[in-house]
Amino acid sequence: MTTAFPLTQAYLVASGDMRLAANQQCWPAQVQMETQLTQALAALGLQVTRAHGLDPHEQHGFISSQRMGMNVFRQIPKDAPVIVAEAVWQYSHHVLAGLRAHRGPILTVANWSGEWPGLVGLLNLNGSLTKMGVPYSTLWSENFQDDFFISLLRSWVESGQVNHDRSHVRPFEAQGVAAADRILGGNLAQALLERQVILGIFDEGCMGMYNAVIDDELLNPLGVYKERLSQSALYAEMQRVSNEDAQATLDWLLARGMTFAWGNDPATELTRAQTLGQLKMYVAAVRIAAQFGCDAIGIQYQQGLKDLAPASDLAEGLLNNPERPPVHDLRTGEVLYGGQALPHFNEVDEGAAVDGLLTQQVWTALGLDPSNTLHDLRWGEDYEGRFVWVFMISGAAPASHFTGGYAGASSERQPPMFFAQGGGTLKGESRPGDLVWSRVYVQGGRLHIDLGLGQAVALPEAEVQRRWALTTPQWPIMNAVLEGVSRDQMMAQHQANHIQVAYTPSREIALSALNVKATLFDALGVEVHLCGL
Fold first, then answer.
1. Is the pLDDT of residue 30 over 60?
2. Neighbour-count burial of 119, counting CB atoms closer than 10 A to its CB (0-12 exposed, 13-18 middle, 19+ buried)
3. Using CA atoms, how far apart are residues 171 and 185, in angstroms rounded to an integer?
């Protein structure tokens, strides 16, 4: 059956979380978003049928499991237009089976909101569809009435396609790089292939992030291998960490001025016991990494471990910093990974794993602070004539990125909606400075990386607090400007909910570091794209 244009009917689906509390609390925002979207579509002559209803027992209308998603898509004609509407974080694998087999036009749509992370869910879904090779169009809007949204929505109704401006993207050419940078990048590639590295994977596939799983066949030619570990082993190792070791780790942080917002109610407040549990996880993770010779590790946490232990985020932020509490080998007493970061890829995002580990090697070779992290592309707004992004992750950013370092860092209880067992973040405001941003992803059966320059910027305190209040105030924040890349260009091109960032002392040094990194990836056979340069 051939789809007729202009479209007059479409089916709407909404992928949700796997956690009931999150789906229930986010449902009103989804209802509001769908109301605005369907009104905009009706004005263009398109009638929307919701493919699944409100569950009266669970009190939300999200697709909340892979099986449910399969059942929903069985009822949708294979050639019908489908709209995936997202106002919240969602587990992409709930709908991937249906979308992989679908033949009709697909449109993914998100709200532009800091409070409700539909943008984050949208970018993860888009990256997953790109990895699968499924054609799709994508849009986003704050109120679903702006000219940008309406004009491109009309294009989808009339043709089944949306074409975004990607003129900011160009292929990398190694011969255009300064000789010293090109030679260093090539040497680092050869050294990686000769030594080889290990990613410690504490369970794959966090939160349905299909785009964050990279097959061994793509990783191994880079000299990158996986050690598949279990979070149950991490939990068991946590039980072997002594109270004295956990307290010593806490004392180290307190001595450097870090603060903890402790209270007494573990259901809603951060408690000292939760913090000590998080620090036991930190010690246990380092010891297991050393046992298996891992060069970087990733903890899934959000499934399984979330029901047993406080949040992993404080441990993750400590791991990403070369200056961190010492962890001693139980047999020899030696300090493990002394003076080094043990890069952690939040939510077991293997694109971030490769990126973070190779960034560490490039920055170390250049004599720069190698601490780097991923963030969510959470949201952003114009501020005094330029668009300023809010990059934000749930606590995994290193204190070296913050104004004041550890003295500028605090730990606040993770939101109970997502973190029933509590635990705190590693929270701070990212200091102003030049940076290189990047993302490794899979497209067309190959590894790709997007690279660009930017700046973390200092905003007035009132504006920073406003942005925190409109997002998640417990989490670390980076207010960032991306060079040569508009808001909509970034959304159109980016293939993940995550973005990797690393600081440099100046734009000149940032450009040199970017060129070394681009040459390294290029020499390893990764397709390199420069964005905004």
1. yes
2. buried
3. 17
